[in-house]
Amino acid sequence: MANNKRKKSGSGGGVAGGGWEIIYSGFVLIMLCFFIMLCSFSTMETSKVTRFVKSFSIAVSVFSGGLKFDKGEIVLPVSADIVDADSKIANIFTEMAEVMKSYGIEGEVGMQNIQGGLVIRLSDSILFDSGGATINENALPILNHIGTILAKSNYNIRIEGHTDNIPINTYAFPSNWELSTTRAISVLRFFIDKNHISPDRLSAEGFGEYKPLASNDSSENKAKNRRVDIKIFTGERKTKVKEIAD
Q1: What predicted TM-score, i.e. pTM, was given to this entire model?
Q2: Sheet (strand 156-162) strand order
Q3: Most buried pick, 34, 110, 238, 240, via CB within 10 A?
Q4: Can you list the alpha helix ranges (DSSP code H) found in the chain?
């Protein structure tokens, strides 16, 4: 009888809707995985830890309700998402950011991490006069700083000239093809003559108006498209030479 009374009295004592235990257990497991991964990264590069934290914060943020990770520079500083924080390409990113800040040209020079390297994007307004391809005197110190930074590495560099879609038809530049190509070559020649960068590391291309960053539907967008891109490639160029016996 006593056993039966116990069973009856305990049969209705449970809490309805006990799904909170599952949610709580899942949260504890996530936190456990987080700290295990942090411990495993203790001997790895700082940038790898940063990338993991970014990934983890994105994963946690898919849950509705509750607190989420703060976004912005307070939690994670702006970076080029480079795997090795001590690599030369990371140093280039850091030094270039200092050059931009020192000259106050953050709005006219940008950087972007691309597959296999980094691109330094310079507005044409700080390099050339409208419709011209001769580097302005005011731009010479800036370009010299950039070239000095690039000369310390052994990466291959491609310089690309770009224009907007406004046609040009002068004796020197019959079309935007010639203008964009000549501008790229002007920067290339500067790096060779002033910074003594080995010519076999450099190449130049002109794309005219055919590789725009934005649609050419406003003066602001056209200004974005008129640019010189300095692309730095971290991979070694592989040239296969086939020997043919006589």
Answers
A1: 0.63
A2: 109-114, 117-123, 227-233, 156-162, 202-206
A3: 110
A4: 2-11, 20-40, 46-60, 88-103, 140-151, 176-195, 219-225
CA distance 109 to 128: 14
Map out the domains of the chain with their CATH numbers. 20-63+73-77 (no CATH), 88-233 (3.30.1330.60)
Nearest-10 Cα torsion for 57, 61, 63, 64: 150
SS3 203: strand
Q: How far is CA 49 from CA 61, 135, 199, 200, in A?
A: 18, 42, 38, 36
Residues 6+ apart with CB under 8 A from 85: 45, 46, 47
> Which pair of tokens denotes residue 175?
């079309």
CA distance 194 to 141: 11
Give me the tens of pLDDT residue by residue for the chain, a chain 246 residues long.
545 544 444 444 455 556 777 888 878 888 888 778 777 655 455 555 455 554 544 444 443 443 333 333 333 333 444 445 546 788 888 898 898 888 888 888 889 888 888 999 999 999 999 999 999 999 999 999 999 999 999 999 999 999 999 999 999 999 999 999 999 999 999 999 999 999 999 999 999 999 999 999 999 999 999 999 999 998 744 433 333 333
Backbone phi, psi, residue 231, to 5°: -100, 125
To the nearest 10 degrees (0 to 180), the angle between helices 46-60 and 20-40 is: 170
DSSP 137: G
